TrEMBL record:
Presence of keyword Methyltransferase: no
Organism domain of life: Bacteria
Swiss-Prot/TrEMBL keywords: Membrane, Transmembrane, Transmembrane helix
Membrane-spanning intervals of the chain: 6-25, 53-71, 83-101, 113-138, 145-166, 172-190, 197-216, 228-249
The keyword NAD is annotated on this UniProt entry: no
InterPro entries: YndJ-like (IPR025450)
Protein's UniProt name: Putative membrane protein (GlpM family)
Length: 257
């Protein structure tokens, strides 16, 4: 499972985030800094835990922190689109925090190294990609449903994170909110070109898996294992939604947010 998680994480670092940053008003120097950090982070996940892996993870963090700082000015005037984009820009910093701890073998806040590794993946896709695409959709087709989705995706992502601390039912509530937002986004995407159709169609399945897993964790009902979730939900979101979704927006030549 760890090797597959690493493939998903590296895809987020080297493909999804760079494509996404070209869709927002991120200065070129910061995009180049991200790539330097992303390469270091990508190497880090394949090394044994220890000082070398931590140093490379810290270089990755240096590329993520400026993006988080760019999120703050967007919240001076709060709109659903701005909230979604700010969430996307801040998410890599959360991933970086988890990565540095995991590479150093430290169970941050008591979370296992496996959960920290999955958090890195989660905040590249549910955090960055999902929030960014929700913002793009809300701007491209403004309406009550898409604006609510642009808020629901960041809110759901935050609730899932809070659920790590407060318990499975909070995490399940976050999964419900996030799924509702992403299914709304998917309904718009499937009306686009082939890549957008793939991205939207994949979301319909992967978010259903997320709901079933979160419900099972909260109730004890049978649900997919973490390994199965990585192979289905994780891979689907990485390649079917993340990569295809970003490429779809580049094909549409959307102006910067």
């Amino acid at each position: 499972m760890i090797a597959l998680v690493n493939v998903v994480v590296v895809t987020g670092m080297l493909v999804v985030v760079p494509l996404g940053l070209r869709l927002v008003a991120v200065p070129e120097v910061l995009r180049r800094l991200w790539l330097v950090g992303a390469v270091a982070g990508a190497v880090s996940v394949w090394l044994p835990r220890g000082p070398a892996a931590v140093v490379l993870a810290l270089v990755y963090a240096l590329g993520a922190i400026p993006l988080a700082l760019l999120a703050l000015p967007r919240l001076r005037r709060v709109t659903p689109v701005r909230v979604a984009v700010a969430t996307a820009l801040a998410s890599p910093a959360v991933a970086a925090t988890a990565l540095v701890a995991e590479r150093g073998g430290a169970e941050l806040f008591g979370f296992s190294l496996t959960i920290l590794s999955l958090t890195v993946a989660h905040f590249h896709f549910a955090g960055f990609a999902a929030a960014l695409v929700a913002g793009l959709v809300a701007r491209g087709e403004p309406g009550r449903a898409t604006m609510v989705a642009a808020l629901a995706v960041p809110a759901g992502t935050l609730l899932v994170l809070v659920g790590y601390f407060l318990g499975e039912w909070v995490e399940f509530a976050g999964a419900v909110v996030l799924t509702c937002g992403m299914w709304t986004v998917a309904a718009v995407l499937v009306r686009g070109g082939p890549l957008a159709v793939v991205a939207g169609g994949v979301l319909g399945v992967t978010m259903l898996l997320a709901l079933s897993w979160a419900l099972g964790e909260a109730t004890g009902l049978p649900h997919p294992s973490l390994g199965w979730m990585v192979a289905t939900h994780g891979v689907g979101n990485a390649f079917g939604f993340g990569v295809c979704g970003m490429l779809a927006w580049h094909r549409l030549k959307e102006e910067s947010l």
